[in-house]
């Protein structure tokens, strides 16, 4: 029986031997396939890791309408993020092309809605004509006997070499038959395993959207002027002695952010989305690399600077395709190493306070530890650090922020956040990679 709201399958009218018309329904079967995304990382950029927790969206175009992409529903139990095993799950509904795109932060897609393929933006905000690439495409072909086969491929819209070279994207996979064991309607579905698929550094770069200065979030932001400087590629170089040529500085009013050259190292190693960006080897510039970080992450940083009267921030990590957690490749993360604020003491004196997020080299920047001999300068550092860490924990409790890491492990209760679901829960985590910076990432449910 047909369920309500479900359209009938398309009927083909055939006539039997007595010339009686019969409606023959070809009900497309739904098949369940899974693919395991891996990525290179580790300290040498070579160790292969599973791509865990990456939000993705699956879209489909039918053979008869190849440029009309629709969002696919998820198989039952699939979360929309790659699993702890790096697996993405896809429901196939007949022939055509299926693409898995990174589900950008703040974007939500309804099943069956039309999906517009985004383009990498030019610095002036216009579309470049160069499409954001999927992580992979699945080509499903129906044979004359109506059996289906599937193969992993890639539209290669930016004309990369295919294979295992540093600038290449993965080659096509073998053709595999779909069988009734993978039918999503059957009782015991055994998804067809398409095996491992490496998202190369270049594939990450091509699949990560380059945001432009006319993004709606920038238009709507209280910090649009500052964001337009970042996304309009109008940052300046670092005039401080000994500074790296690839440092980028935002200066706006009394606010300054240093995007240290380390925050764009991985991006600058990759090819630009542009066919010719005028730079040696067509490698990405520091400015293009910074535009891969989502505007909501930059907006958060600017808001925090405003709310806490922070005049200077140093950032050493943003979007990057080559190492560390998936959150950096996902464009939702920023690493910061130090912050300077101006505070007014009870005698109305103004003091510049700088804290460094380093477990061993700046223990005075610990937000809670009271030293044996306290000095006014030390107290100011501790209080500023406490307000900054609390601000982040509050952002996490509100859902605006997601995973947080830093040199010191801190619970909600320790930071005075009592409206969190469980106050004793750790808000800011620590490990050996976070000994020298705070990692900020956006939450899953951005407004
Ligand atoms: Zn980080």
Q: What's the N-to-C terminus distance?
A: 40 Å
Q: Share of helix among residues? A: 10-25%
Count of discrete domains: 2
Low-pLDDT parts are 1-8
Can you describe this structure?
The protein is an alpha+beta fold. It folds into 2 domains: 26-207, no CATH class; 216-442, no CATH class. 15% of the residues lie in helices and 30% in strands. The protein is built from 8 helices and 24 strands. It has helices at 201-207, 216-219, 224-231, 265-268, 286-290, 295-307, 326-329, 376-397, and strands at 11-15, 21-25, 30-41, 47-50, 56-61, 69-71, 87-93, 96-102, 114-115, 119-121, 127-131, 136-142, 148-153, 176-177, 192-199, 248-252, 255-259, 310-317, 333-344, 350-356, 401-405, 410-411, 426-429, 438-442. The strands form 5 sheets. Strands 16, 17, 18, 19, 20, 21, 22, 23 and 24 form a 9-stranded mixed beta sheet that branches. Helix 3 crosses helix 6.
List the keywords:
15% helix; binds zinc ion; 9-stranded mixed beta sheet; disordered N terminus; 24 strands; elongated; 2 domains; alpha+beta; 7-stranded antiparallel beta sheet; 447 residues; single chain
How is this structure best summarized?
This protein is an alpha+beta fold and 447 residues long. It folds into 2 domains: 26-207, no CATH class; 216-442, no CATH class. It is built from 8 helices and 24 strands.
């Amino acid at each position: 029986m047909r369920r309500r709201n479900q359209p009938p399958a398309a009927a083909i009218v055939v006539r039997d031997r007595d010339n009686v018309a019969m409606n023959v329904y070809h009900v497309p079967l739904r098949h369940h396939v899974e693919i395991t995304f891996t990525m290179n990382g580790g300290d040498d950029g070579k160790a292969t890791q599973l791509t865990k927790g990456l939000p993705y969206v699956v879209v489909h175009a039918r053979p008869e309408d190849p440029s009309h992409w629709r969002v696919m529903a998820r198989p039952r139990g699939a979360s929309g993020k790659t699993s702890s095993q790096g697996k993405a799950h896809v429901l196939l509904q007949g022939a055509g092309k299926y693409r898995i795109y990174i589900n950008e932060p703040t974007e939500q897609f309804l099943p069956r809605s039309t999906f517009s393929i985004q383009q990498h933006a030019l610095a002036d905000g216009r579309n470049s004509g160069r499409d954001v690439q999927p992580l992979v495409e699945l080509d499903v072909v129906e044979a004359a006997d109506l059996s289906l086969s599937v193969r992993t491929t890639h539209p290669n819209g930016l004309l990369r070499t295919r294979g295992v070279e540093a600038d290449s994207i993965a080659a096509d996979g073998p053709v595999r038959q779909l069988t009734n064991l993978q039918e999503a309607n059957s009782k015991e579905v055994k998804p067809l395993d398409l095996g491992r698929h490496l998202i190369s550094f270049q594939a990450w770069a091509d699949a990560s959207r380059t945001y432009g200065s006319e993004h709606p979030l920038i238009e709507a932001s209280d910090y649009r002027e500052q964001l337009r400087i970042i996304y309009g590629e109008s940052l300046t170089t670092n005039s401080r002695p000994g500074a790296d040529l690839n440092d980028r500085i935002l200066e706006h009013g009394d606010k300054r952010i240093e995007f240290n050259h380390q925050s764009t190292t991985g991006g600058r190693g990759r090819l630009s989305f542009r066919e010719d960006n005028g730079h040696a080897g067509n490698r990405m510039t520091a400015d293009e690399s910074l535009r891969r970080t989502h505007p909501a992450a930059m907006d958060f940083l600017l808001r925090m600077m405003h709310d806490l009267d922070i005049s200077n921030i140093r950032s050493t990590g943003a979007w990057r395709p080559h190492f560390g957690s998936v959150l950096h490749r996902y464009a939702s993360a920023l690493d910061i190493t130090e912050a300077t604020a101006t505070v007014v003491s009870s005698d109305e004196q103004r003091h510049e306070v700088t804290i460094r997020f380093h477990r061993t080299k700046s223990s005075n920047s610990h937000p809670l530890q009271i030293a044996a001999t306290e000095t006014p300068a030390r107290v100011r550092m501790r209080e500023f650090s406490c307000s900054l860490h609390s601000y982040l924990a509050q952002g996490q409790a509100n859902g605006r922020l997601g995973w947080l890491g830093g040199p010191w492990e801190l619970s909600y209760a320790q930071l005075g956040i009592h409206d969190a679901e469980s106050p004793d829960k750790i808000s800011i985590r620590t490990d050996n990679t976070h000994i020298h910076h705070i990692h900020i990432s956006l939450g899953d449910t951005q407004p």
